[in-house]
Amino acid sequence: MTVAVPTPSAPVLPDPARDPAGRRVIVTVVAIQAAICLGFFSVMAHLVAHLRHDLGLSAGTVGLILGVRIGLQYALHLPVGAVTDLLGARRAGVIGCVLRVLGFVLLGAAEGVGVLLCAAVLLAAGGALCHPAMQSLLAGVGSARRSGGFAAYVTTQHLATIAGPPLGLALLSLEAGFVIVAGLAAALWTVAGALFLLVPARGERPAGLRFRDILTGVRAVLSDRVFLLFALTVAPSTLLANHIMTAVPLLGFTPAAATLCFCVLAAVAAAAQPFVAAGRRGERPWVLRSGLLCAAAAFFVLATLDGTQPGLLMLAAVLNGAANGLVQPSIFQRAARHAPPGRFGAYYGVLAFCGGMFAFAGDLVIGRLFDVGPAGAAAALAGVGVFALVAAIGIRGRC
């Protein structure tokens, strides 16, 4: 399938030679990103092992819980992206952080599937508000700063990802370790909510926007056929970015090996950001295509593993890290360039909705295939790689 990538539109804000408010937005959003990623990944890197071994859940049930969190979060992006435009990014971000704090508290206390599902719902709703809020703030910065600002945002995410899993692993050695890890995440998300209040209010709420514009914003994106086709083409990107954190523990690798894998992945993704930001390379289709090909290669390698090949696991981590480092800024730049002023949230929401629905279905199917046995696991991971190849072939044109 060949897809034309959207035509650029006017930037959200003008590009002054000096933009102190834009600099402040970037610095504050980067600080928020550091807090939330440190908390999130200290928990998520070890959540599968906790559910599988401490609580004794089957791989299918683990897949259901993870799938509900991812699927609901990204399903909510469809309306919530437009709600972010309505409320303003600061308000949306604060509400999202509060919901995630409650979700992590429940996650640490949960012993049954019902409470775990409630925690997953709260985490999903919080993420659906927080992530478009941060990216809307960055999209509102002048384009001269936007590439570098988003590169700093992604780099911070991955550096915090490197620190998060070892921090979680260290805390797990304590009595009631997972409860402590979940409590740390709740505290860090509380800090992030406070930081949202420090973001400058400039351009936060477009003039004349009303609640009826939620549907108007969504309809406008859905009627943009070029952008919608692009969103459908890159829908596998969410599964490609996140599923390695589920696959590695289910393949039988130890917590230490999984932690090292996630750290290598994050380091490679962070190292790619100066390359992507220089010369605004993130706006070029070949960068996105290269990232999807790296993701395909990573899952083809994972499909051959059974928990006893740490060297090949590190190769998969490097490939997946390169994929994340190239794909994430490329998709953001396309949305930021294409969305009309004041509508980035709605455009981001449609992108995230498509990716989340694909990830939700993928997690459910992959969890069942892992329960079948090694052959099912290999088929599931190879299938993910095939989807990445199809997406790479479909990318054409330029935003």
Architecture overview:
The chain has 15 helices and two strands. The protein has a two-stranded parallel ribbon. The protein has 399 residues and is mostly helical. The model is unreliable at 5-17 (pLDDT under 50). The chain starts with a strand and ends with a strand. Helix 2 runs antiparallel to helix 3, helix 2 (59-87) packs antiparallel against helix 14 (344-372) and helix 12 (285-302) packs antiparallel against helix 13 (310-338).
Give the SSE layout.
Blueprint: E1 3-5, H1 20-54, H2 59-87, H3 89-109, H4 113-139, H5 143-172, H6 177-196, H7 213-222, H8 225-233, H9 237-250, H10 255-271, H11 273-277, H12 285-302, H13 310-338, H14 344-372, H15 374-394, E2 395-397
Helix pairs in contact: 1-5, 1-6, 1-9, 2-3, 2-4, 2-7, 2-14, 3-4, 3-6, 4-14, 5-6, 5-10, 5-13, 7-14, 9-12, 9-13, 9-14, 9-15, 10-13, 12-13, 12-15, 13-14, 14-15
Give a summary of the structure in a few sentences.
The chain is mainly alpha-helical and 399 residues long. It has helices at 20-54, 59-87, 89-109, 113-139, 143-172, 177-196, 213-222, 225-233, 237-250, 255-271, 273-277, 285-302, 310-338, 344-372, 374-394, and strands at 3-5, 395-397.
Task: Jot down its keywords.
single chain, mainly alpha, two-stranded parallel ribbon, 2 strands
